[in-house]
Amino acid sequence: MFSPARGKLGKGKGAGLQSPASASPAVVPHPSPHKHSPVSLRGSASPLFPWSSGSPVNPRTSLSPEVLQKTSSDGKEPILVSNFPQELRNSFLERPALRTDPGIHGGMDGKSGLSWIIHGTTLHVWSHLNKRALQGCAVLTIPTHLPAQDGETADSVFSEDWLVSLVEWPAEEQNDVSFVKACKSAGVVMCHRRTLAVAYWPDVFKDGDTAVVTLGPGDHVEGTSAPVPEENQHTPRRLSSGWTGSSGGPGGELLNSLLTSVIPGGAAQACVAIVARSNGELWRYDCCPLGITRQQITREVAARPDVGLIAFNSSCARSMVWRFPADKPQQGMRQLLLLTAAELECWNIELGPAGKASRVWVFNILGNPETQKDLAGQKQVWLLDLQVDDSGNFFTVLLASFSKDRLNSSSFMQYSLLTFFDSNPPHGEVVRKAPLQVILPKARVEEEDVLYSMRLRIGGKPMGSAVILAGDGTATIAYHSGGNLKLYHFDLAWGAGKVLDASVVPALEEVETSWLVLTEKSGVWAVPERAVIVGGVEPPERSLSRKSSSREETGNDERQRELNYATNRSALDSLDNRVPRAAAQRPLHDEEAEAIVGRMFQQYLATGRVDSAHEKLERAGAFEREVEMNIFARTSRVIVDTLAKHWVAGGAGSAAVMAAVSSQLIEKQRRHQQYLNFLSISSCHEELQMKQRGAMHAIMEHGEKLAAMVQLRELHNVKAQARAPVSGTFTGSGLQENVEVSGALWDTVLLVGEKARRNNVMLMDREKSEVFYTRVSELEEFFACTQQHGTSIIGPEQPVRIQAERLCELAEAATSAIKAAIRYRDSQSSWYPSPEGLTPWYCQSTVRSGLWKVASLILDLKAEASVSVPSLVPKLVSWLEVVTDVLLDAYAGAITAKVEREEEYRGLQMEYWTRRDTLLSALQRHGKEVADASVQYVHDEGSAEQQRRSVLKKMYPSLIAIARRHAGYQTLYNICSDLKDMDQLRDLMRESMGFREGRFSHYVFNQLYETKKYSTLLQFGQEFQEELEAFLQDHVHLRWLHEIFMQQYSSACSTLNSLALTPSMPEGERSIKTLVKRPRVRNEIRERRRLLYLAKLSALAGGEMAGGEKVSKIDANISINEIQEVAHEKEVVSDDVLSPLQLIEAFLKSGDRDLVVRAFEVFAYAGDSFRSSNRSLLEAAWLHAADQDNWASMKDVSEEMGWSDEHYWLTLQASLLCQISARCYSKNASYYGSPFQDFLPLFESDRTEEDNPRILKSETAATSVEAILRQHKDFSDAGEAMLTALRIGVSSESFDEKEMELEPMLDS
User: Fold this and answer.
1) Spatial contact of 1237 and 1224, defined as CB atoms under 8 Å apart
2) Residue 335 CB: number of other CB atoms within 10 A?
3) DSSP label of 893
4) Residues 887-911 as b or e (16 or more Cβ within 10 Å = b)
């Protein structure tokens, strides 16, 4: 913005006004061995991090007035106050990529001496003026859930979406004596600019306490705002209605100001925060450690007449400041000054909880007669920012105005300061203190977003100076010297990155002190008063580069060196507004190196040889800068962006202009190739390839863009000739002179050229088309224009046929330009450096967005044309396929570069997948539509199907090629399904596609599974055995079929047995993943029996013996399943899979005598480990079985009635003890594992430790069934009967287990 030409500013440090590049790494230049440079005193530092251990710059952490006035450079250079805290340095080292993203945002608080920076998702707060406080940096994690809206969460990496304000809590008197007292307690309030969400840290410096209090955007809101009159709700007038206009004007709803204040006498760590939206809304937040409340401040907006300087709502908020310092509250109230689009409002804010707000007075700035007189002739005025001095009575306003030069009809911007004084506080009798102070009389035209990003700071030295901070990171100090305005631009030799904020040194008295600036890469620096005075220059004029000045004459030697360039250097001064501005004000050795490159190149063009060019350039430091900051890359850019030296007569699209442009493009191609040859002969190419890959890549991309621009020009000529009238048709010669006034490509060229002219007033006299074809390095703007204005270029009001022609022309232009660049890359591949981590220009987001816009327009127009003009559909689809191919290749290149740089790529990958599937599906659907239409009147089904496949085979090859390159699995599968071509499907499955997203074979398996084509799925097992086995790990109910098919009987046996014993999952416990991958099939008892018999068959087929361990285990499971079936028929248990423990417990509780006996059968079939781990349950089961018979009553009855021995024997035989003994201990007993006798003998007499080693030796466990029954209550009376019943059962041979036939069980 504040960007004068370099020649006028001289060579002194700080004389220039170009800003440092935010995206360029800071590099400390090496001193020249032939000439002493003050830069050499600074030492060397890491190219990425100037604060690394190699840097000898020592931070001045304890600041005093004496230190500021006595420096090693006599006050002519900025002074390093403090480096970044160690925590912030570590964050930069861990995430260096964020240093060039919108991921760094910061600010300074002049009163507390605190600085803060948001890096990624963390907020760092520290004191830049106190050494001890510097070591205690507070690192706060930003809650990422705060900006949630409609189920989405904003990415906290975009730090410009947050407003931050620091709250210094009152503290006791400090005992240390220093110029600046450390802030020991402070709170932080953050507010999201879009959602009004708030995060509040009550005390960031409290040890171990970084608790955050939050308030989401959807929480309760108290209070309402006054309605806005309809006449004030219209959209504000832009600087231009064209593409160059702003997209974020005053009618937006972003927060642009945040103020905080301590509540005096209130609760501990309680504060009030006031925020202002750009649409004029005011909101109040009451913050305390217990919570946050939000309330909208009612602000009445009355309709006001147009003052002649603006045409939009004058109530829109611009800036907001407290009128008086925080230590001067008046009865719990503070005054707030609100700057709107036209006025200055003063509000009283009650600081108590839920305090009221009332407007005190309003002053119409733009309606003031004196202001209108000063701004006479200005077409439009923007009030940008407001600052108040410490007394609270002097108000300084930064404003910008738009005007036109009547002589040459060129447009420019003017930046000024207005100062007002309240003559009767607090009633608001505001008068102007001084005339309008013009800071920059003629600057280039900026978009409104750039204007609104400017901030103003006052209060530093020299007295009356002001700092203007621009959104691009420039900091300019304006002051008056000898009645003339001077400007000083802050910059460091090695590049400090953006200036994030500026403040003044806190003083104990109300006096002006030196300026402090917080930089993006180099910490906090102080700017001494002498540095500002010595480095200040007069504001540059618009025509500076067109005519010489006295200052230019003093730099005659330097200008003479620059004139040796092979291309016109004045063209660089007029065109070079896109290169990072730090490149315009470079250290002296950069100028020398650039001059040497130009001189050597000129020598090569004249003689064809170079003399020790590499050594000279290395000594001059030409290989130190990266990417576009590199000297060689800048020279290459000058070659491709040079304007013609003389004006070309003719109107827009005239043959003379276009012929000159075409010849100039060819000449630039020839000159750029000569430049490459020069780099090769001078051995610079090898050096750049190895050590400066980014710079060499930028040089080669200039050649690519030249080739693309030539292709666009050739296409332009072809389209113009096609639209030219037939010879003799028209009689007017003028009609044939301007034949290119129509066409999508021509309209896009004019739009891009117009934007370039508006951004650089020095190009206002050039033709739009000439500017477009000249600015080769900015070819991405063509795609940006397509993305933003593609719809209007196509012309939705035109007939469908015209829209299709224009859209196809735009698609051809976009794709042919990129293909020409790729052809250049292929033909010049030996010149390129290693591509790892480098993103080609045609893979950048701007280009991808433009291509996607074209593809979206084709899809929309195809849907419309298929109804109205079907004949246009094939042409549209043909170009859609071309655009799809180029677009998907661009996404693949961008993702590859991110992966190689180890950057986060998943968001881009998801976008790539979504758009890939959308485009490929549309192309595939079109093929099916064409095939279906071709058989519409064929009645024979066989012939129709054959013809349909024939049509599809002709249409699908190109689509298959694209889908194969980009892993379009869905499209490939659908194509093979349409063609019913299993051979082609197998061929595609064999290819190694999908490195990160799964192989194609897995996708095919999943599709077959979802459509329940199980037989087709299993047929792939023999050819894709490993892949199918991996897929079936999540589908067990199909895996055993695959294993039997592959004759893996042992594995199939295990799978079937496991599947039969897997319980059905309850409805409430099934996860989403289980529902998707394992459909719930109720595992009924009969189904389990079938699976178990299949498992037994598999085991036998696999070579297992009938009495082997595996077969015996399966037989035991079959027996338990049969027992459960009996219990299920009695409605005692469910048919789901139950464990042996669950069955036994249910049987014992049922009261059914038969089930009590079967509980012991479950014990028998459950195995040794189960019986050992549940011994107490077994003992309880024996006692429960004894309880089922009335032993005491049986004894009494037998004695009374005189039972015979046979009757007594039959009665004992019917007891449960006898039945259990027969089933578990007889010769015919069935069990799994060791016999019951080995585990728990019936009688104490049977127990011998030598013969029964498995009997547990425990002091508490019973050693036999007899010992267990001795615990029964009736054993004393009927113990002999119980033992007799056991003996009858174990000796009984009548009990015989019913054998189950295998075949009937299988059939059932």
Assistant:
1) no
2) 20
3) H
4) bbbbbbbbbbbbeeeeeebeebbeb
The model's pLDDT over 1276-1292, given as tens digits with 9 standing for 90+, comes to 888 888 888 888 888 86
Separation of alpha carbons 680 and 668, rounded Å: 18
Question: Which amino acid is it at 605?
Answer: L
Strands (E) in 1005-1087, as ranges, are none
CA proximity to 374, closest of 324, 432, 303, 290? 432
> What end-to-end distance do the CA atoms of the chain give, in Å?
89
Give the separation between CA 815 and CA 882, rounded to whole angstroms: 7
DSSP state of 831: G
Tokens encoding 840: 């080609």
Distance CA 813, CA 1229 (A): 90
pLDDT above 90 (res 846): yes
Cα atoms in the Cβ-side hemisphere of radius 13 Å centred on 1043: 26
Rounded to whole angstroms, the Cα distance separating 971 from 535 reads 65
Q: What's residue 760's pLDDT?
A: 64
Q: Are 1169 and 1234 in contact (CB under 8 A)?
A: no
User: Is residue 260 a contact partner of residue 292, using CB atoms and an 8 Å limit?
Assistant: no
* 610, 604 Cβ separation under 8 angstroms: yes
Please tell me the distance from the alpha carbon of residue 710 to that of residue 665, in angstroms, as a whole number: 6
Alpha-carbon gap, residue 458 to 478, rounded angstroms: 10
Q: Name the residue with tokens 């040794």.
A: 1168
Predicted confidence (pLDDT) per residue in 595-640, tens digit: 777 778 888 888 877 776 667 666 656 666 665 567 788 888 888 9
Give me the helices (H) in 901-968, please: 906-934, 941-955, 957-965
What does the pLDDT average to over 805-827? 94
Helices (H), 1046-1174: 1049-1060, 1072-1077, 1085-1101, 1109-1129, 1140-1150, 1153-1166, 1168-1173
Here the tokens at position 701 are 């991309």
d(CA 645, CA 788): 32
On whether the CB atoms of residues 1211 and 1296 are closer than 8 A, the answer is: no
Rg (CA), the chain: 43
CA torsion sign for 174, 179, 185, 187 is positive
SS3 (DSSP) at 1036: helix
Q: Residue 699 in contact with residue 737, Cβ under 8 Å?
A: no
Of the listed ranges 483-497, 521-535, 672-686, the least confidently predicted one is: 483-497
CA distance linking residue 68 with residue 314, whole number of Å: 43
Residue 586 has pLDDT above 60, yes or no: no
H or E segment to which residue 478 belongs: strand 475-481
- DSSP output for 605-621: HHHS--SSHHHHHHHTT
Please say whether the beta carbons of 444 and 491 come within 8 A: no
* Cβ neighbours around 185 below 10 Å, total: 16
Find all residues with CB under 8 Å of 1168, minimum gap 6, and list them: 1233, 1234, 1239, 1254
Q: What span, in angstroms and rounded, lies between the C-alpha atoms of 1060 and 473?
A: 70
pLDDT in tens, 1175-1189: 889 888 888 888 888
b/e code 783-794 from CB counts within 10 Å (16+ = b):
bbbbbbbbeebb
Buried b (16+ CB within 10 A) or exposed e, 392-412: bbbbbbbbbbbbeeeeeebbb
CA nearest to 105, candidates 389, 455, 487: 455
Cα gap 887→846, rounded to integer Å: 12
Q: Give the three-class secondary structure for 929.
A: helix
Which of 438, 420, 316, 318 shows the shortest CA–CA distance to 375?
Answer: 438
Lowest mean pLDDT among 1-5, 416-420, 1234-1238: 1-5
pLDDT average, residue stretch 1113-1141? 87
Tell me if 813 sits within 8 A of 847, measured CB to CB. no
Distance CA 404, CA 760 (A): 14
Q: What band does 1247 get if pLDDT is binned at 50, 70 and 90? A: low
